[in-house]
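pasting for ref
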Amino acid sequence: MNSDMLLLQQGARLLGVELGEKEIALFDLYQSELLKWNAKTNLISEKTAGEIVTRHFLDSLSAAPFITKPQSRLIDIGCGAGFPGIPLKIVLPSIQLSLLETNRKKVSFLKHIIRSLNLDQTQTLHDRTENVVRTETWKEKFDVVISRAALKLPDLLPLGDYFLAPDGLLITLKGPDVSAELDAALTGGNESKIYQVFQYDIIMPLLGPPRKIIIFQKAK
């Protein structure tokens, strides 16, 4: 096992996620393909290309302990190169994953990596959220909506209303100071169908400054 994958395994364990040989092999291939594609097209920034394990894989896996329903239907909004959706799919293989992304080149990579990792029950949605929510196709079809940094909370909560089935979870991965953003999200009527809000601090030196996971639960 190379040093990156050993770091990943150790870091995941600190998050309560155990990675076996199969999962490590998938993450290793994911990182290799990501770097290969990133040399030709801008999937992730150069700054984070040398920190894929910590900035992308482990950060994504911090949400795994909160997804407890077997075979959850999960949509990752603005997933970019697949974060956090694909790392979560690797460690929670029974989830049904949809990856919503607007950038054509990133969608091409997502389709490639889904094939390369042989991920079943995984699909890409190449569209903008404002187009998707105009239809009834995906309304209340998901148990979990997740987004890492694509949208601010005031914009994300209405999407949770649209995509989530009753009692579903909207999970957001944020930096340490989200108080102003959270206050803005919970004013102006956005909270009408979200009846509980949970905040968790993710404190792990490997991830740098403390991270926050904000979870909104839709009313039954």
